[in-house]
Design a protein that fits this description.
The chain is of the alpha+beta class and about 260 residues long. It has helices at about 40-45, 50-55, 60-80, 145-150, 155-160, 165-185, and strands at about 25-30, 90, 100, 110-115, 120-125, 130-135, 200, 210-215, 225-230, 235-240, 245-250.
């Protein structure tokens, strides 16, 4: 399993937009509620379909999260693609994974994945191939054990059962969940593939791995995982299968001072 990050990897606050090099994965941290001050501008870059979707939300908080997340996704991708945010056209795979057909200025593809939980979103981008990212707010769940029994591999359930401290077991649950989800999002199949068919490591926080996919441990050897700690109270993961990458983590807050973001 190949990766280049650790739980202590810093989240940088760039003022200038960072170039995306061939063997890099960029992960952007997007604080959704902190960017509401520019809501009027956010609405302007959305497509008609996105505006319709936003207006369906009954709660203003949920609507604002959607608008900020979608608009910031467009604005960040626009910086990579050198196009206007509103000019981006999203296409969707068979099971709903979004992609863009526009290429980067160097002719390479722009591969990305987006995830959100509560007040936080993450965007992962590279120029080599598909990847997946997931984030979850660490929260109390009365059905955590039943979910683990249903969706986790037997070895993962056993590892969780050995953790006596409730808080540590909760944290471990979300680490496992986000690692599985990141892989499923990378392959574009989501929960239809089956969370229980993917076994991930739990013991080594800094060097997570995919242990097995289905009944074939060898299928997992091409895949890499990285652990993410984007904010206090959140945990995440990113998955890819294109060899060695340098993972660079950014916060988009300071980019909000520029006209195009």
């Amino acid at each position: 399993m190949r990766h280049s990050t650790s739980p202590s990897s810093p989240w940088l606050h760039p003022v200038a937009f960072p170039p995306l090099r061939p063997r890099e994965i960029h992960v952007w941290r997007i604080p959704l509620m902190a960017r509401r001050h520019s809501m009027p501008e956010m609405w302007k870059v959305l497509s008609e379909d996105e505006v319709t979707r936003a207006k369906r939300f009954l709660l203003a908080q949920h609507r604002d999260r959607f608008v900020v997340g979608r608009a910031t996704l467009r604005r960040l991708l626009a910086r990579y693609l050198l196009v206007a945010p509103e000019a981006i056209v999203f296409r969707y795979g068979e099971l709903g994974k979004p992609f863009v057909e526009t290429h980067l200025p160097n002719g390479h593809g722009c591969f990305f994945n987006f995830t959100n939980s509560s007040d936080l979103a993450l965007l992962a981008v590279n120029q080599v191939g598909e990847l997946g990212v997931d984030v979850e707010e660490i929260r109390d769940m009365t059905n955590m054990d039943s979910l683990a029994s249903r969706f986790f591999a037997d070895a993962e359930v056993e590892l969780l059962a050995r953790i006596d401290d409730d808080r540590l077991r909760q944290l471990a649950f979300f680490r496992v969940w986000t690692r599985k989800e990141a892989f499923l999002k990378a392959i574009g199949k989501g929960l239809t593939f089956g969370l229980e068919r993917v076994q991930v490591s739990l013991e080594n926080i800094a060097r997570p791995t995919i242990v097995a996919i289905g009944d074939d441990p060898l299928a997992a050897t091409d895949w890499s995982l990285a652990h993410l700690e984007p904010l206090s109270g959140y945990v995440g993961a990113v998955a890819w299968n294109h060899g060695d990458f340098e993972l660079r983590q950014f916060d988009c807050s300071h980019l909000g001072d520029t006209p195009s973001l």
